[in-house]
Amino acid sequence: MLDTPSALEPEIPTSLSNQHYDLIIVGAGVCGLNALYVATKYLPATARIALIERRDAAAGMWQSTYDYVRLHQPHPMFTVGNMAWDLDQPRQYLARGAEVRDHLQSCLAKLKYKLRLDEFYGHVSDDIEEVASQGGHIVRTNIKPVVGGPAQTLTADRAIYAAGYAISEMQPLECSSDNVISTAPGGLPETLADNPGAPVYVIGGGKTSMDTVMSVMADNGSHQINVINGPGTYFINRNNVFPLGMGRWSSGSLISQSFADLALKFDGTNESELNEYAFHHYGICPTGTPGQSMFGILSEEEGSQIKEGIEEIIPGYLEDVIDTANGPKMIMRDGSRVTVPDGAIFVNCTGCYFHDHPNALDRPCVSRHGRLITITKKDSLHFMTSVAGYFLTHIMFLGKHQSVPLYAIDAEALNKKSRHAYFAADATQIYLNLMLWSRNMPMNVLLNCGLDLDRWFPLPRRAAAALGMLAKSNAHMAHCRASLDKVADVHGVTCRPIC
Ligand SMILES: Cc1cc2nc3c(=O)[nH]c(=O)nc-3n(C[C@H](O)[C@H](O)[C@H](O)COP(=O)(O)OP(=O)(O)OC[C@H]3O[C@@H](n4cnc5c(N)ncnc54)[C@H](O)[C@@H]3O)c2cc1C
Hints:
- The chain is of the alpha/beta class.
- The protein has two domains: 6-168 and 355-497, FAD/NAD(P)-binding domain, CATH 3.50.50; 181-232 and 285-348, FAD/NAD(P)-binding domain (3-Layer(bba) Sandwich), CATH 3.50.50.60.
- It has helices spanning 30-42, 97-111, 188-194, 207-218, 238-241, 247-250, 255-265, 271-282, 300-309, 385-397, 411-417, 419-440, 443-447, 459-471, 473-491, and strands spanning 20-26, 48-53, 116-121, 123-125, 129-133, 136-145, 152-164, 181-183, 200-203, 225-228, 233-237, 283-284, 292-298, 310-314, 318-324, 327-332, 337-339, 345-348, 372-376, 407-409, 495-497.
- The strands form five sheets. Strands 1, 2, 3, 4, 5, 6, 7 and 19 form an eight-stranded mixed sheet that branches.
- A hairpin with a 2-residue loop joins strand 15 (318-324) and strand 16.
- Residues 1-16 have low confidence and may be disordered.
- Bound molecules: flavin-adenine dinucleotide.
- Flavin-adenine dinucleotide binds at residues 26-32, 52-55, 60-61, 65, 69, 71-73, 78, 124-126, 163-167, 208, 352, 359, 384-385.
């Protein structure tokens, strides 16, 4: 699919201002920082880069996520490029939100001296586009201060719009009752402290919900905990994908092999069976209803702890809490009502990946003339935007982004149509794109990807897995393409090669 037809291309700028850059990056989350890291490998020290970020500092969602959030994966594998953490913790340590924020900001501090970086914090770019100029195609954007004020026009030879998931902070659910407390994870510690002993209703069954249950349990154990579970979520079993000690040599499954297994079992239509299989082989579900997976990771120990800590699991979707003569009642989507005690605390953990946000630019991930790369959930190459930022930037600077037929999915639209199809197609896409990256990138790009979760395992195991994958890659790629093309047909969403 092509972007703007040439007849409608924006007008040609007559001159380039002194605000012309070699590269513009929009978004200073882990996705944009990975793009910046890769750019430093290709651009000379004299190159000018503009980094545009709506927030007042780098680190994206890790700047403002709830205090008790922890990484799903061992901390060394959540990074910028291949940059090491400065944290005196064992390898399996799951870093806290503030530690992740500090790590990302310290990576930026080290990178910014490698070239000439102009940082525009508190600025938004929502009109970035590829335009024709006298010297060929370039990228142009008007950046506006969040607090108001005149816009500035920036142009560049290339740009990466790395809004990623552009996650915003969860807000309390609106509820009609005056006798219960509605809060969000960000406000929970204070709410618990102000209301000792109040029962807690955690809304949602995903990773934020599990973090919340564990956090409430740690808060002197005086709060009864209930979970309102929706369709239910299962998690990837951390004991399997990150086994400890000698288990790294002899047990568990490399993430890439797990995705290969799932991709090869998916035929484009059997997503429900595949989800069941994925849960039984790779999953864990403390709430007992493994409805869907969003690729969150949980250990068996965490799972048992959570199970023990939950008083009641209430199936269904919460619509509102109202006051009645008999006290507050939850109104569920199916019309049923559930009585709750006065003073109960409701915590909104309903997730924020696929909530619409105003800046989700709906455009192909590679622009028509190849000058603008867009990394969002609308035309996504990998559910980990960090990985997409790393590989897409490499492939752009290698000049292969218009010739390697990576598959892109409108993850948001597919998830809305079918959560099972989203999971199955994403697993398939990840495996296919991994094979394409492996065949089209220099070895050092693959070996230096610090985000690669397989790095948990010793090199001989990883090498054996990679060789096995490459030996069968022609047949495996054909299978994955056929399945993904079927997903596009059946669900009518973008799921196609980018070129
Ligand atoms: C609660 C929670 C826990 C998570 N835990 C993990 C985990 O443990 N491991 C993992 O791998 N992933 C995790 N994730 C997934 C998470 O989305 C990624 O880890 C990652 O941090 C997302 O980075 P990003 O750069 O894509 O998006 P963000 O962190 O949202 O960063 C995007 C940045 O771009 C800026 N921006 C967007 N649009 C514009 C614009 N138009 N102009 C200017 N600036 C703009 C935003 O202000 C933002 O700072 C978690 C997500 C959530 C919500």
